[in-house]
Amino acid sequence: MIDQLLDELVSLQNPDGGWGAAAGNGSNTETTALAVAALQSLGERSAPDRVLRGVIWLVQHQNPDGSLRLNNVTNTGSWTTALAIIALSAFPEYQLKVLEAARWLLHQEGSKPGILAEIILFFTGKSKANELNRDLIGWSWVPRSFSWVEPTSYALVALKKVKSALGDTNIDERIHQGEAMIYDRMCKGGGWNYGNSKVLDYALWPYPDITAVALIALQDRAGEPANQESLQALRKTAAETNSGLALAWAAICLNLYGQETRDWQQRIDKRFTETKFLRETKTLALALLALNGGKANPFRI
Amino acid sequence: MLHRRDFIKYSGLGALYPIVAGCQPSVRWRPEAFRRKDLSRVAVLKAESYHRPLQDVIVRGIKLCNVDVKGKKILLKPNLVEFDPKGVINTNPAVIEAAIDSFRTLGAAQVIVAEGPGHRRDNEYLLTASGLYDVVKQHRVRYVDLNSDDVRPTPLRSSFTNLRQLYLPENLYNADLLVSMPKLKTHHWAGVTLSLKNMFGVVPGTVYGWPKNILHWQGIHGSILDINSSLPLPQFAIIDGIVGMEGNGPLQGQPKASGVLIFGDDLVAVDATAARVMKIDPQKIKYLANAGEFLGNLAHDRIEQVGEPIDKVQQDFQVIDDFKDLKST
Q1: How many helical (H) and strand (E) elements, i.e. helices and strands, does chain A have?
Q2: A142 contacts in B (CB within 8 Å)?
Q3: What is the ipTM score, two decimals?
Q4: What are the extents of the domains in chain A?
Q5: In Å, how far is B149's CA from the nearest CA of chain A?
Q6: Nearest CA to B122 among A85, A26, A213?
Q7: What is the model's pTM?
Q8: What pLDDT, on the 0 to 100 scale, is given for residue A294?
Q9: With an 8 Å Cβ cutoff, are A124 and B1 in contact?
Q10: A120-130 pLDDT, tens per residue?
């Protein structure tokens, strides 16, 4: 199975060295970073020339301010910078590039509603309609917009990985607040969706992929009751969802929490034979990481 | 007392709307850039069940609207925002399947199905759970994830938001006709979600995130207008009203059997007609009222309705309390 996924992933590499979302798509930072991370985790089996070309693609898409662009079309720094940090962290020769990216990431902040909005919310008594604490700042998808769980989780993993090398005095506070933001957005009963546990009077449900990503970001707080509750939610929702993406993220996460993942790996194998994961590069890369077990897991903090 | 739809403007989802709105230029579109038809044809056809053949109905609807699809590349854009086994959130796969067959029968060169779900990134799950995976596989139709498609910067042709351009998926540029295929639903922020609101799904998540929050921050109504005014290809609409959703849509409302499919190449006229089918006054939906000034026809006397008369198919769609005033009298 690993060989099959490896072949599939390698075949999707574009001539420019990067990977696109699927066959025929132009390269982008998200899928290139995940593909590089997945291949690199295989060690000697990893097709090192392919990995190197992917790494070069990433470095070539780094802006002078340290951020990485989404793709060949957009110019500004993006949320995918965190994924590039995670992937490039495995290459000591690129540590300076990693730290430049991390400094940029550290200074990105999600926005919150303005004073006028807060006043109106207060006087209408609806400041709790979303049941989220808007003062907790994490990371956003788009610069200068609201914080959400997935980009915040990637940022936390990236910054925690480079924390000691970065040595910025602000980093502990940003990590602490990012973690608090994620816990604040947890769904009732554990787990996360994109970042809203409730809208108006209706509770929203968790998604397994996002739950896994959030738990990965919080892996160094494994003993927290919220983590344990969310691990249960992850197992339940990933089994119900039964998609390559959900199963792969679940297996990567559970492995980081020291749990047995053989059953999840078998489900991934079975699902691949059924759907080929729609041949989405991201899922193929994550499945490769999941099947490779805990060896050189790039999401380990 | 502030109503809930006002609240969204000020909440975490739309917090800066009043500030943004206050900064908007007084001229929001250039009249010479938009030409409305004198009369827009909308077909309302009966379709009682998803379990009966729908292809004949859809072929008839396309023909009634005089849309030539021969040799064209068709992009079907259903509404596939989330999945709830107990709900009726998404465009039913039976309607999408019949549309694929219909456009092929009418000579389309290519049909693809494309969507950029607004909440979830897991396409494999949404497709398999909703039943759409079996349809695209069986009919050998390509499914494109618009969230992660290659993108092209697209200048906006109206200014209801502070956005000046949007990155839009390349597949919109590669198609000849964009077919919006929404569900007939009420919406707890926008009032109704029909063929115009369905276009939120063409905005790529990899650029704008999940949810596509920047559109909410810029204002839902303004974003709907700016997206639709700037699409780089002609559009057509097929609204799945066989079973719609009333109440707290777009996700948690209740099923509402309406037994209709609604067709047209003027999306404003189609949505206005659909709103009337729901006994909602389209003039009271902010984005529809604005759209009727430049994008398409909203007024009764500028819509040539064919097929079933509205009063024969009209259903009283329930709305949330804050939207009671949207109901037609």
Answers
A1: 13, 2
A2: 207-209, 213-214
A3: 0.94
A4: 109-206
A5: 7
A6: A213
A7: 0.93
A8: 66
A9: yes
A10: 556 555 455 56
